[in-house]
Write a structure and sequence with these properties.
Two copies of one chain form a homodimer.
Chain A lengths: L8 H8 L6 H12 L6 H9 L7 H13 L3 E7 L2 E6 L6 E6 L5 E5 L6 H8 L3 E12 L1 H6 L3
Parallel strand pairs in A: 3-5
Antiparallel strand pairs in A: 1-2, 3-4
Helix pairs in contact in A: 2-3, 2-4, 3-4
The first copy, chain A, binds a DNA duplex (25 and 25 nucleotides) through α2 and α4.
DNA sequence: GTAGGTGCAAAGGATTTGCTTAAAC
DNA sequence: GTTTAAGCAAATCCTTTGCACCTAC
């Protein structure tokens, strides 16, 4: 899981955004924190269901929407038509490197602000408001073992 | 359109990949080249239909798949659940800045290779094989006119 | 007490696929 | 002549939504 400790009330509150901290949503948030690497809504749902047996898939979708809005989850591409998410409860702006072998994820420092490319863009008449950067590759284990 | 000239046979060939250069596909490729900024498959289809009245939507989807595989089109996000594409028949590696006001697109030099961030990632045990970077912002016209 | 959340089931909608005919090579 | 693509329509399948009931606040 992303943390070796339990999530604090404050983190749970942030994850739920303005919404209510229902029993189900808290379980879903904890399940998301517990996911290893990237995951789909369906995978998260299966995991959360272990804590909340009757959990509906729509509830998981709604929780994911809330977590994505609050910045607790980030979208990092898609796999077979399903959107891939990562636990991302990091205060500061950063990006991710995804292992295409096992889905493992590491956060990386954003290389853009200092870069000349941005200046060039501004000179071309654009004002940059946002950017998406995701790196893909192989982690140490997968490189040695061969991509699965 | 992306070019002020007609597409060469070589460019058309590249766009179609290994596939056949059918009448329909060539028209779709030219229509894609003629799109202003980002576009959805549906929008491309409407445009291509002006050259090929009976064109089926499935044919456009298949052409888009071929162009995306050959690198002639790039995916640059989505709008209301529809994937957004850009004409991208550029030999060298680059990225895009998208105007969120009007969809206008400009190519930008890739800032990553020289960056320390990549080194840091490698030190963390990852081998980077690929990366996606897209910038979003406002072009000169939209900034002055106010975002639509 | 009430707005917002949940579960279920049905709807939505982009994209894909099966099949027959036609055209590229 | 073969093989691949087109066109049409049906199927897929992720995601959203309507609704009646429940619960966090």
């Amino acid at each position: 899981m992303a943390h070796d400790r339990e999530l604090t009330d404050r983190e749970l509150r942030t994850a739920c955004g303005e919404g209510r901290m229902s029993h189900q949503r808290l379980r879903i948030v904890r399940a998301a924190d517990g996911m290893a690497g990237t995951f789909t809504v369906e995978e998260l749902h299966l995991s959360a269901k272990r804590s909340v047996p009757g959990l509906g898939i729509a509830t998981t979708y709604r929780a994911v929407t809330a977590m994505a809005s609050s910045g607790t989850l980030a979208v990092v591409g898609e796999r077979n038509g399903r959107t891939l998410y990562v636990w991302c409860a990091n205060d500061e702006h950063h990006h991710h490197i995804i292992c295409t072998g096992c889905g493992r994820v590491a956060g990386i420092h954003c290389p853009l602000p200092e870069d000349d490319a941005l200046v060039a863009v501004k000179n071309a008449g654009f004002t940059v408001t946002r950017h998406d950067l995701t790196l893909y590759g192989l982690c140490d284990a997968c490189r040695k073992g061969g991509e699965v």
